[in-house]
Amino acid sequence: MVQSRPIIPILIAIAAASLLYLLQEDDIQPSEEQSIVLPEGSPDIYMTGVDITRYDEQGQATLHAKGESLTVFNDPKRTVFAQPIIHLIDQEQRTWRITSSIAFIDENDNIDFQENVVATQLISSPPLILRTEQLLVDPAKNALKSDLAVQVTQGQQRIKAIGMTAELDTMGTNIHFLSEVSFVYEP
């Protein structure tokens, strides 16, 4: 005599698995809210939720970058980075954090930060904070440059100027202001 009891649990398991599959299939289909809208100009690469670390030839981290999106165009060669947060790293220590609304990276890996740029030196106490609307960073030379108005604060010191260049060094930062320099110390 054949028993019919083992078939019922198998049918229930098949029905449950089918239901789960159908529910999961709806999750696989992207909703209109989740669809990605590519930037104009037909990018070659488009990434969201970017988290990148760059290493030198010896395997030491030199730069860590996070951002909302990264768009790479090969013709002409340029990269657009939305909402970047970039840390410059020297001898395994984060030395600078630079943020802005947008940044453009050229074929030489220079980074042109634009709109609401804030560069904070992390190895000084109190931290040195530089604010401007445009800042060009040359990671290979460890240098910063701006031709626009800049404001540098450190503790109770505040310097305003038009344009600046800076050589970044772990021992200290050498900033050269270009014109219209004013200095305020508030005790």
UniProtKB/TrEMBL annotation:
Domain of life: Bacteria
UniProt keyword Cell inner membrane present: yes
Keyword line: Cell inner membrane, Cell membrane, Membrane, Transmembrane, Transmembrane helix
UniProt cross-references to PANTHER family, sorted A to Z: LIPOPOLYSACCHARIDE EXPORT SYSTEM PROTEIN LPTC
Name of this protein: LPS export ABC transporter periplasmic protein LptC
